[in-house]
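How a chain folds remains the central question behind the approach discussed here. For one protein, we set the task of working out the structure tokens from the amino acid sequence alone. The sequence in question and its structure tokens are set out directly beneath this paragraph.

_____
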Amino acid sequence: MTDPASDPQRHALRQHWARIQLGDDSASIERASVDAGFRSYWRVHSRGRSHILMDSPPALEDVRPWLRMRELLATHALRVPAVLAQDLDAGLLLLEDLGGPTLAKVLDERNADDWFGRAIDQLITLQSIPVPEGFGQFGEALLQRDAGLFEEWFLQRHLDLRLDCGAVEGLQLAQRRLMDNALGQAQLLTHRDFMPRNLMPVVDGPAVLDFQDLVRGPIAYDPVSLFKDAFLSWPLARVDDWLAQYHARARAAGLPVPERRIFLRDADWMGIQRHVKCLGIFSRLRYRDGKGHYLDDVPRFIGYLEEVLPRYPQLDGLRRLLDEQVKPALLERAEPLAMAR
């Protein structure tokens, strides 16, 4: 499939539409960021100012869910991008420009406590929003799908592993326990990718991006996504401390968090479920969609699993699979690559 972002006709449409909206025949556009889906983002320069153009080709990605979720969040005072113009038939939106780097590029040892504190403010605002009637549910079906992604795309397709009956049974038992834990948590509004890469470091923020897949889901999902990011890692002790800070502030805000010990376990287990899912999704992006750079972060996910799984003997089947099959298979893949270099 041709990438719509590189299609000359689509590019001409983007530029023509942006110039009409801004009343500037000399407005220029350039690629602003790359998305894992079919959306693309463009920075529009006009008369010394800049805006963001979101392009969602209607045949590939409907922009209306994004607009509905943006309205829900903005109505409840969450900081999200302002919409300046829209053409639903063409799949084009003109948005305010929130600046250059995401929070992931700005965070460092000195400012992480401050920015994460502000991100917790936004997260608690999001989680306090009543979930509308008929909202999607992060339930059994999605959890089963995530488990299948790990097996089909990471274990089988990427690592070419064929598990024996004992390994399959151990993995399925661990996955069942992770799913039961997620389903047993308090369920509220959940972003599912609330991480620094989807936050913008603006003065009244951070502003929240990529929210079109909001669902009703487990309370620990977004906090662990924030501190155990798919693209940015922190020492485990520091993550535990941030999670404890979130817990105290969520309880003070009246959110239905359990006692601290239970919440920290729930966050660990939710993180394991998420990291296993990401291994499957990133493998699928490589082999189905030709986006191989996501697999560069496989060692990060393996590291997350290695540091947390030993805490929980109930998930020993997954730990054994990691130690006995996944890590050796990854090593075998790495050796030919190293020799080729």
Remarks:
- Confidence is low (pLDDT under 50) at residues 337-341.
- The two ends are 31 Å apart (CA to CA).
- The chain has two domains: 4-96, 103-340.
